[in-house]
Design goal:
Layout: H1 2-15, H2 17-52, E1 59-64, H3 84-93, E2 97-107, E3 110-112, E4 115-117, E5 120-124, H4 128-132, H5 145-150, E6 154-157, H6 159-166, E7 175-178, E8 181-188, E9 206-209, H7 210-217, E10 224-229, H8 235-250, E11 260-264, H9 265-308, H10 310-318, H11 323-356, H12 362-365, H13 372-398, H14 402-407
Parallel strand pairs: 5-9, 6-8
Antiparallel strand pairs: 1-10, 1-11, 2-5, 2-10, 3-4, 3-7, 6-9, 7-8
Length: 410
């Protein structure tokens, strides 16, 4: 039976070559539109999330603020400044916190020979690297506890700053002068993509032990605290407990959100996730319109086929063919047309996505990605279009009266 339906389909192709080719082309273009748009949308969303994670994944950046509410006899407008005791308090009292680091910082001249810069010099704890995704490149190391305990004058350079000061020369094991004081370079940051920052991008910074920073520059207060919860879903609870603990210590209302400046990147990443979900749905809908137009073309050609075969349908019915057989024949031919267009469209889409992966500026727009979800959504949409495009002509063919069919064009 299937062989007969395929032969009938091939005969129709031969009789109506141009019309069938245009119909197949409509399905092909619709498939390409859906697949390519969703592939580029998926790749762009993934890249944006990756870029956003360059500052650190699901972290909270906290600095002192100014109270806007009077509390326990204290007026509003008080400046809150954080110190290392606050860091110890939060780490001890909030079990949801996985990593926590204080951070000092200031713009400071850095020199190596005749090369000089004025980067943001950052005093940090060893946990800082894990929190902020700052990792040393091969051949170097990150700051560790011995550096902290000994107040060692060691430094890790951002990769861009290293190129400015050392060019192609290896920097590890050499010295730079920070505010006139020699520091041994023990590491260079591994390059990373980062589209969000504060003060300066990590590639342009110098990282030194927090204890060394305090002894060299004499800062008493931290620039900020950086923390990461054990699970992103625990971040809100950790932040709420932080307000209560620091509110108790500094005598401010825990509901006074301006008393601390808090940047919760988990909220931003959550917004980014849903934003690109909506963006991909929009791209899918736009591509689907092209595919729907192709489906309408398939339905039209099948109505024409049914009309041309009216005498044939009447003869088959008079010889005992059931309505189901007629309906199945039209449906199979419709699905074969859609399948041919879909295969061509997928092959073209694979080529376009592969070509798109070679485009420059992938750090900004991402690499198009043919994920299983994209392919599954496309195949499901193609099946729906095929079924709808074939059902109505097939139902009409199956409902024809055999006697009227035999009189057709007589």
């Amino acid at each position: 039976m299937l062989d007969g339906l395929i032969r009938q389909f091939i005969d129709d192709l031969k009789r109506q070559r141009l019309r069938t080719m245009l119909t197949v082309l409509g399905i092909t273009l619709g498939t390409v539109a859906v697949v390519v748009l969703l592939a580029f949308g998926t790749g762009m969303g993934r890249q944006m999330r990756k870029n956003a994670a360059g500052i650190g994944e699901a972290i909270v950046i906290v600095s002192g603020g100014t109270t806007t509410k009077s509390f326990a006899g204290f007026p509003d407008g008080r400046r809150i400044q954080l110190d290392e005791d606050d860091a110890a308090l939060l780490k001890r009292e909030i079990p949801e916190i996985l990593y926590l680091s204080g951070e000092y910082g200031r713009w400071t001249p850095v020199r190596r020979g005749t090369a000089a810069a004025n980067p943001w010099v950052t005093g940090v704890w060893p946990e800082y690297g894990e929190i902020r995704n700052v990792f040393p490149d091969a051949g170097g190391r990150w700051i560790h506890e011995q550096d902290m305990a000994g107040r060692r004058r060691v430094a890790v350079l951002g990769d861009s700053l290293k190129k400015l000061l050392f060019g192609a020369e290896d920097a590890v094991g050499q010295y730079v002068h920070i505010n006139g004081t020699p520091f041994l370079v023990v590491g260079v940051m591994r390059p990373k993509t980062q589209n969000a920052s504060y003060r300066a991008r990590d590639r342009d910074r110098v990282f030194i032990p927090a204890t060394t920073f305090r002894s060299v520059f004499g800062d008493r207060y931290l620039s900020r605290l950086i923390l990461k919860a054990k699970d992103p879903d625990l971040t809100r609870d950790a932040v709420a407990r932080m307000y209560k603990l620091l509110g108790r210590r500094y005598r401010f209302d825990p509901t006074d959100r301006d008393a601390l400046s808090v940047w919760d990147t988990t909220e931003f990443q959550r917004i980014l996730k849903y934003m690109f979900l909506g963006f991909n749905i929009f791209l899918g809908v736009v591509g689907s319109f092209t595919l729907i137009v192709g489906g309408i073309g398939v339905a039209n050609i099948m109505y024409v086929v049914v009309r041309e075969r009216t005498p044939e349908i009447g003869l088959k019915r008079s010889l005992g063919a059931t309505r189901r057989l007629i309906l199945t024949q039209v449906m199979v031919e419709t699905l074969l047309i859609v399948a041919v267009g879909a295969v061509l469209g997928l092959l073209i889409s694979f080529g376009l996505v592969e070509a798109g992966s070679m485009l420059p500026a992938q750090d900004e727009i991402g690499r198009p990605e043919l994920s299983p979800a994209v392919l599954a959504a496309t195949i499901a949409l193609l099946a729906l279009v095929g079924l709808l495009a074939g059902w109505f002509p097939a139902r009409r063919a199956a409902s024809l009266d055999p006697v009227e069919c035999l009189r057709f064009n007589s």
